[in-house]
Structure formats: C-alpha cells, structure tokens
Write a structure and sequence with these properties.
alpha+beta; Lipocalin; 2 helices; 10 strands; globular; Polyisoprenoid-binding protein YceI; TTHA0802/YceI-like_sf
C-alpha cells in the first residue's frame, strides 16, 4: 500500500467511525413512549429551563428564561393519570441577556424576588391526549399569588445519559398565563399581559 493510499484509508476510516459515533449518539434517547420507565424522578437542573415570551410595545416578542429549577416527577406511563409534578423556580435566576432589565424584573415593580424568591407549580390532574402527549393541569404560584394553569406536554425522549449514567426522561411543555392575574401589572397593556411559557424539562430516575 502506498503512502497516499494509506492516508486515504485513514481518512475514510475516520469518517466511517465518526458517522458510527454520531449514529450511536443519536440513539442514546428514544422518543418511543413505551420505553419510558416508571418511577420517581428528580429535576436535572443543568438542562431544564423555563422560558417566557411576551409582547414589547407591539414591536417585538421579547423572551427570557429561568434556570436552577428543582423538584420531582412521579411517573407511571401505564397509569398516566396518576402522574404528579412538583417544581420550584428561583426568580433570581431570571435572564433576558440584558443585565439592566434582569435587575428591573427582580425588583418590587415586577417579580419582587426579595419578597417572593420562588415560583412553584404543583400538578392536580394529568390527562393523556396522544401517544406521547398529555395536558398537565395544576396550580402556579407566582408573586405570592396562585392561579390554575394547564400545560401541554410532549415527550422528547428517554434513555441512559452516557455522561452521568443516569436514566433520564425529557419533556417539552407550553402554556399561557395572564401576568396581571399574578399581580405583575407593570406597563400593562403596553407590555403584553399574555405570557407564553415554554418549558424544557429533564428528569433523572431516582428509584
């Protein structure tokens, strides 16, 4: 084998190995709902985000998010109605990528993070709506006020995380709230009252 042919073989082998590795990585999690394990899960905070979007003066839809979420999920795919979800969201984690605005949102005029450091969501009912979807109804407490909220949840995937070896299940959920109903009324209606929530949730099996 010539040096040129040897180099070509090495390159081809690297490409094939890379393709196999990429395929293996793509197979870490499966979207198959029948593969989801029953049990008690804990929020994996590093890859869980609660995003929010609202109208800014009608010129743009402005977004931010909260991180550092904690909580638990009790899940039995065979009896989805028995599922329960309880999460806590630290208000101080609010991030819009604009530091000045983040400070304003933490102030008493908005979320008042000093007096109300956490938002919480506790489910009261889960109704399956499809093979991998469900409506999660519950009570959202924000700014010291509690209101009923329904989230539309969709399974993203489940499997063993190759990095920490933890069995993980992930969901995406969406919903809307009227922030004025929680006493957050600053600049309504110039700054939108309707807030769209988008949750990327990752949960690790505990038992």
């Amino acid at each position: 084998m010539t040096q040129r042919h040897f180099a070509t073989s090495v390159v081809m082998a690297a490409l094939v190995f890379g393709a196999v590795s990429q395929a293996a990585a793509q197979q870490v999690a499966t979207p198959d709902p029948s593969a989801v394990k029953a049990g008690t899960y804990k929020v994996e905070p590093y890859h869980t985000q609660v995003g929010f979007t609202l109208s800014h003066l009608g010129f743009s839809n402005f977004s931010g998010f909260f991180t550092g979420v904690s909580g638990s999920l009790t899940l039995d795919p065979a009896h989805l109605s028995a599922t329960s979800l309880d999460v806590t969201i630290p208000i101080q984690s609010v991030d819009t990528t604009v530091p000045k605005l983040d400070g304003e949102l933490k102030s008493a005029q908005w979320f008042d993070a000093t007096q109300f450091p956490n938002a919480t969501f506790k489910s009261t009912r889960v109704v399956q709506t499809g093979a991998n979807t469900a409506n999660i109804s519950g009570n959202l407490t924000l700014h010291g006020m509690t209101q009923p909220v329904t989230l539309k949840a969709r399974l993203i995937g489940s499997g063993t995380n190759p990095l920490d070896k933890m069995y993980t299940v992930g969901f995406e959920a969406t919903g809307t709230i009227a922030r004025s109903q929680f006493g957050v009324k600053q600049y309504v209606p110039l700054v939108g009252d309707t807030v769209t929530l988008t949750i990327a949730g990752a949960f690790e099996l505990q038992q």
